Amino acid sequence: MAPGHVAYGLRAQYGLMVTPDTVIAWERGHLPPTARELTALAGVLWCAPAELLAAATTLKEHRMARGIPPEDLARRVGLDAGAYRRMEESNRWKGNERQTGALAEALGLTPRALVAATGRAAELAEVLKDAATTRWQAYVKPVAKLVALDRAALERVLQQLHGEYHSRMAATSSWGASGGSGESGREFLDRISDHFWELAGG
Predict the structure, then answer these.
(1) How far is CA 167 from CA 135, 170, 175, in A?
(2) φ, ψ of residue 116 in degrees (nearest 5)
(3) Running DSSP on this structure, what letter comes out for residue 32?
(4) How many whole angstroms separate alpha carbon 18 and alpha carbon 131?
(5) How does pLDDT run across 9-40, given as a tens digit for each residue?
């Protein structure tokens, strides 16, 4: 379909006043469609909204890919619709452990995708650094708030992460700086996060 045909379909079927130039801007990635426009576009093109998104990374993209209105998702996770919208727009999830689990289930997210979508990856990396370098037991609850994993599995993973970190540091110092500033600190956080997900199977 040419951009003019798509624009006509959006006007005729959904009442959206979209020009062919806007359709071209969507195609080239210069302008993102709104949630309503994306849903209508999927209807015109006879596909699911998820097929029009590259790889969903934010809460909003995951929700739109599954065609769930924000009010419905808010209700499923036990939040006020306005509070959910504010979290989605800021990409800063503030739900509790139960709400986080409900969000992962509603959007079909793996634990790792959930952490990325809720904007908690950097926060998790810092907590994992502390769990690996100090007493891991003190960090089970903070990690559980960020990651939707079974508590027993989480304890096993943190204990293993802690043990491996200390074994490697004693033997070779191969994990580098333990969270210092600059590039080496960032590399350490990335490495410890990646290893956590390997151990967690995610």
Answers:
(1) 15, 5, 10
(2) -65, -45
(3) P
(4) 52
(5) 999 998 989 999 998 888 877 787 887 888 88
